[in-house]
Amino acid sequence: MSREAHRVGVDIERAVVIITSGGLIGLPTETVYGLAARADDPLAVSKVFEVKGRPRGHPLIIHVSSLDRARLLSEQWNERAEALGARFWPGPLTLVVRRASTVINEVTGGLDTVAIRVPSHPLARQLLERLDVGLVAPSANLFGRVSPTTAEHVLDDLGGSVDYVLDGGPCLVGVESTIVDCSTDDVEILRPGAVTEADIVSVVGSTSPASGRTRAPGMLRSHYAPNCAIVTVEAESEAVSFRERGVLVIDAHSDPESFARDLYSILRRCDEESRDMVVIVLPSADGIGGAVRDRLMKAAAPRP
Ligand code: TXA
Ligand code: MG
Questions:
Q1: Which of these ranges, 4-8, 36-40, 47-51, has the smallest mean pLDDT?
Q2: Which range marks the domain in which residue 287 is found?
Q3: Number of compact structural domains in the chain
């Protein structure tokens, strides 16, 4: 059939060969699809930046198969990271810790910390378990655009540049992992995700309020942005006048989990349908709602 059919599938052996020889894979995870390359190879890592159009200073997450593997990437693994990893891995949580000297500068953007995650998606786990290196995997979209949550989204954005896409079906969470900085005594949430602040507090006792300084380079105010204008409202009543004018209104309030799963497909569809505007009724900030609000605020923010 098509060239695309040939480049998408569930062939782990093929993915192992491509990764080992420095190629790029579309990798399904429970959050979003990643653009994966071996994390110990400066050339492979630099291809990831090039293909995404991502500024070199924006550090990447290293994905590994287990907590044991994660410890090896840090020279100062601490009890906070240990407790959080033990509780939430494999799963949608990324931990920032002091890096080991073996982690290459291309991955960390020269920082003395590294971000690490153990994903739970079965195909990601199978691939990672077959490798003796970790995988960098930023979301498999062009820089600043909407993250992919299906193999088809990856092909739409980066089809010409990936060697193979592992098709793991639609992502179950739908928004990127929670990022928690455990590199200092104050545990700080850098990006909200499916693992909530309450979840983190239940393990480490407390978190420090966002410090304001950008501990996560590349976390921009405008991001996750479709071409279509996004307007967010807090209540259905605020959406009435839009509806009356024929503007599409989407309810993210009643079922935030299912909305999170569909969020990036919805934003992509708005662009495909060349809509000028969509109005979204925000969920409350509980549970996954916090992450959904964060992404929608960023999608709605004015472009730089
Ligand atoms: O769910 C996810 O995390 C997905 C899937 C594919 O695993 N990956 C993902 O990667 O969202 P990416 O590159 O799109 O976002 C990673 C974020 C960046 O915005 C960066 O700021 C932050 O992680 N990051 C990476 N290394 C860091 C470090 N050492 N210190 C602080 N932030 C870091
Ligand atoms: Mg991203």
A1: 4-8
A2: 229-300
A3: 2
The domain that holds 44 is classified in CATH as 3.90.870.10
Are 191 and 234 contained in the same domain?
A: no
State how far the Cα of 59 lies from the Cα of 121, in Å rounded to an integer: 23
Q: Same domain for 44 and 149?
A: yes
Helix axes 256-272, 289-300, angle to 10 degrees: 20
Report pTM. 0.95
Q: What pLDDT digit, counting tens, does each position of 118-175 carry?
A: 999 999 999 999 999 999 999 999 988 899 999 999 999 999 999 999 999 999 999 9
Ligand 1 proximity of 111 Cβ (cutoff 6 Å):
yes
Examine residue 82 and state whether it is found in any structural domain, yes or no. Answer: yes
CA of 78 to the centre of ligand 2 (A): 27
Neighbours of 245 (CB within 10 A): 9
Q: Which atom of ligand 1 is nearest to the CA of 137?
A: 6
Question: What pLDDT, on a 0 to 100 scale, did the predictor assign at position 1?
Answer: 43
Q: How far is the CA of 274 from the centre of ligand 2 (A)?
A: 23
Task: For residues 238 and 134, give the distance between their C-alpha atoms in angstroms, rounded to a whole number.
Answer: 47
- Position 212 pLDDT exceeds 60: no
Do both 45 and 116 map to the same domain?
Answer: yes
Q: Is 218 inside a domain boundary?
A: no
φ, ψ of residue 212 to 5 degrees: the values are 90, -45
Kindly state whether residues 188 and 249 are assigned to the same domain: no
- Helix (H, G, I), strand (E, B), or coil: what is residue 277? strand
Report how far apart, in Å, the C-alpha atoms of 2 and of each of 7, 13, 96, 154, 185 are: 9, 21, 41, 16, 53
48, 107, 176, 187: residue to mutate for ligand 1 pocket, most atoms within 8 A of CB = 176
- Pick the residue whose CA is nearest to atom 6 on ligand 1: 34
Radius of gyration in angstroms for the set of CA atoms belonging to the chain, rounded to a whole number? 19
Whole-angstrom distance, CA of residue 123 vs CA of residue 10: 8
Q: Reply yes or no on whether the pLDDT at 216 is more than 80.
A: no
Q: Which residue has the tokens 């909305």?
A: 259
